[in-house]
Specification:
two-stranded antiparallel ribbon; 73% helix; single chain; elongated; Fumarate Reductase Cytochrome B subunit; mainly alpha; 11 helices
């Protein structure tokens, strides 16, 4: 099997990063589906089996942070976490410009890094939502130590945040499935260079500079 040509394909995600994403996505979707089966009356009546669905929901919820925590051993994953946590001038420009997806001579006019501002906001929301759902879910699963008003508030937050997560997840899936380049990158770890220059021109420049430095260092040796 021929290896991808580095002139036309760029390495974007490591195997560890893809595994973290896929396992987290599977756990999140399982939580959302089981939540709907538990709390939407028509679905709960049609499916039943609450004694089976509730433990699946609870344990998948408690497992949600595990892939990320285990992923911290990966240098590539830690590097991408740092990128997601940085919000720079290009990110603000990307959010405010209506023509942010405009392409000129094959390159995006906003030199977006490895992640655009929308992806960074989505990652921040997802991380915060997991922590809040974990905290409120713990109060609901183990009600003994908590006052009644705390558990009432936890129920309110848990239920409404569930709806927000559904909306954000559907939006994320729509964007992912409508962008073949991004989907291929998450499935295979590599992206077409032309796609990367259209959507993440700043990241391509960074990769090229890194490759050039590596070449120069090899030549000196």
């Amino acid at each position: 099997m021929n290896r991808p040509d580095p002139r036309t394909w760029l390495a974007r995600f490591s195997r560890a990063e893809r595994a973290i994403h896929h396992v987290t996505a599977l756990l999140m979707l399982t939580c959302l589906v089981t939540a709907a089966l538990l709390y939407v009356p028509s679905l709960a009546t049609a499916v039943g089996r609450r004694d089976l669905i509730k433990p699946i929901h609870v344990w998948c919820g408690f497992a949600l942070p595990v892939p990320v925590l285990l992923g911290l051993v990966s240098r590539a994953f830690r590097g991408d976490l740092r990128r997601l946590n940085r919000f720079g001038p290009h990110d603000r420009e990307w959010l405010t410009r209506r023509d942010r997806r405009y392409v000129m001579e094959g390159r995006g006019i906003v030199p977006v890094g490895k992640f655009n501002a929308g992806q960074k906001l989505n990652a921040s929301f997802t991380a915060g939502a997991i922590l809040v759902m974990l905290a409120t879910g713990t109060m609901l699963t183990f009600p003994g130590p908590w006052p009644d008003n705390w558990r009432t508030g936890a129920t309110f937050v848990h239920d409404w945040l569930f709806l927000a997560i559904v909306v954000v997840t559907l939006g994320h899936l729509w964007y992912a499935l409508s962008d073949r380049g991004a989907l291929v990158g998450m499935l295979t770890g590599r992206v077409d260079r032309a796609w990367a220059e259209r959507h993440h021109a700043g990241w391509v420049d960074t990769v090229d500079r890194s490759d050039e430095r590596s070449t120069n260092e090899d030549a000196e040796v």
